[in-house]
């Protein structure tokens, strides 16, 4: 009889633990989605252009750590509105992705290949101008 009560208590404790984990995850997901504010395509492209301008300065200074951070920041800014661009213009979406991936990968390599990164940054800057004009 005593062992049956012990088994019931163990099962109950395990159930409560698993249920609490599920609730916590749902709360976290809800908080993340509520923190993301919709960004217009033009505003998102402008934000990315600002990060690119900062990155060019960092490349000139050969500050690898800041260039790496800027590469990560660019991807974060792009994720906010990339689906909108993809829906409106799949070709333009691909034109952004190509130099963006080059920058992301190149920013992680040491020593920095400043020539390749500058070329990709210029290409991305031009494409972002097109993205800003997307209606």
Descriptive overview:
With 135 residues, the protein is mainly α. It folds into two domains: 1-35; 41-132, Oxygen-evolving enhancer protein 3 (PsbQ), four-helix up-down bundle (Four Helix Bundle (Hemerythrin (Met), subunit A)), CATH 1.20.120.290. Helices cover 86% and strands 0% of the residues. The protein has helices at 2-35, 41-60, 64-88, 90-107, 114-132. Helix 2 (41-60) packs antiparallel against helix 3 (64-88), helix 2 (41-60) packs antiparallel against helix 5 and helix 3 runs antiparallel to helix 4. Mean pLDDT is 82; it is low at 23-35.
Q: What gap, in angstroms, lies between the N and C termini?
A: 73 Å
CATH class designation of the largest domain = Mainly Alpha
Q: Say what the CATH topology of the largest domain is.
A: Four Helix Bundle (Hemerythrin (Met), subunit A)
What's the CATH architecture name of the largest domain?
A: Up-down Bundle
Task: Tell me the radius of gyration.
Answer: 23 Å
Q: Sheet bearing the most strands, described?
A: none
Uncertain segments: 23-35
Strand content: under 5%
Structural category is mainly alpha
Order of helices and strands: HHHHH
At the fourth CATH level, what is the homologous superfamily of the largest domain? Answer: Oxygen-evolving enhancer protein 3 (PsbQ), four-helix up-down bundle
Count of helical stretches: 5
């Amino acid at each position: 009889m005593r062992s049956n009560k012990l088994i019931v208590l163990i099962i109950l404790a395990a159930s409560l633990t698993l249920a609490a984990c599920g609730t916590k995850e749902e709360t976290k997901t809800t908080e993340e989605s509520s923190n993301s504010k919709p960004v217009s395509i033009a505003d998102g492209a402008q934000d990315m252009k600002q990060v690119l301008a900062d990155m060019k300065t960092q490349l000139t200074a050969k500050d690898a750590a800041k260039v790496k951070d800027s590469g990560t920041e660019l991807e974060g800014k792009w994720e906010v509105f990339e689906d909108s661009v993809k829906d409106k213009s799949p070709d333009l979406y691909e034109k952004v992705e190509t130099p963006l991936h080059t920058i992301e990968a190149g920013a992680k390599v040491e020593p920095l290949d400043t020539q390749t990164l500058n070329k990709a940054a210029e290409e991305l800057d031009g494409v972002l101008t097109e993205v800003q004009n997307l209606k």
